[in-house]
Amino acid sequence: MHVFRSMIMAALFMGAALFSPLAAWAGSCCGGGGGTALILPSFYNGMIDVSFDFEKYRGFWNQDGKVTPDPPGSDLRQYRLNVGYAHRFAKRWQTSIMVPYVWNDNVYSGFSSQTHGIGDTTINLWYEAIDDKSAWKIRDLADMIPSVTIGAALLMPTGISPYDNVTSSFDITGRGFYRLDGNMLITKTVNPWSASLSLGYGAYLERSVNREYGRYVEPYQKKLGDRTSASLSLGYVYFIGTGGDKLTGTGSYSYLREADTTYDGTRDPNSGFRKEAVGASLAYASTDHDWSTRISWSHAVRQDGWGDNFPITDIYTLGVSYGFR
User: Fold this and answer.
1) Phi first, then psi: what are they for 22, rounded to 5°?
2) pTM value?
3) How far separated are the first and last CA of the chain, in Å rounded?
4) Domains of the chain, CATH where assigned
5) CA dist., res. 168 & res. 113, Å (int)
6) Are 12 and 186 in contact (CB under 8 A)?
7) 3-class SS string, 97-155
8) How confident is the model over 21-73, as pLDDT tens digits?
């Protein structure tokens, strides 16, 4: 399994070297909520998307990548309602916004905590650089050209962070920092199969801190480490009847790494983290494809070596979207 994972990572970062960085793959950490990118198909001018996440915590990886269970009796959960809208303002240009609302419901070492609030907001800008012809059969080299979408994202700290008036990490719904991401999505469809590769690189903006978990401290400058993300997926489309309804099943592998935090320019060697996960999803699109629904599962493998300094979670998502032509 370790060799297989290493081969996947080598392929992903070969893609990163060839195509440059990409995409917005999100994961929650220490109570904070995350959002995802919303990208319009070429035949839509707008789209509304609503989804609900349930994230169940199952221990964590320590700094050496060893699985560490939570104390007996612990029950850590987070729920997120994500509302997004995407809009095409030119033939190849589109923008989107995603806003989560977060509920934390935690029992840890006999301490119970229930909090809620808005999470961090993400604004995306995308440019459709190359179109995919979505061939049914490869007849020439042009049929092998994938679609390439590149863009940028801004994560805004609209959520409750450790630098607000909170008492523990279980209360937070956001990271408390602005982050700029460079994104790329590469997709190829040869019906009924489709594959995609997404790559991303994000840099947090440094900020001044004078309060931590409700306690005022001597002011200092803090910068979270740069974030690298990647995901690889393979999907199969099953056409239902003759009306054009579609059922799409997808399997995926995701990688997330955040470098060490710096305090007044000094790196904290114990602050970075890494997480790898596998996932599956099932999506249904109606005959006119304006309505679609989906369910998905993101699974952090609870084994040594699949992460460092990060919670081990399962994320279950139910979503629905409606497109405007």
Assistant:
1) -140, -160
2) 0.86
3) 44
4) 2-324 (2.40.128.130)
5) 9
6) no
7) EEEEEEEEEEEECCEEEEEEEECCEEEEEEEEEECCCCECCCCCHHHHCCEEEEEEEEE
8) 333 333 333 444 444 578 998 888 999 999 999 999 999 999 999 999 999 99
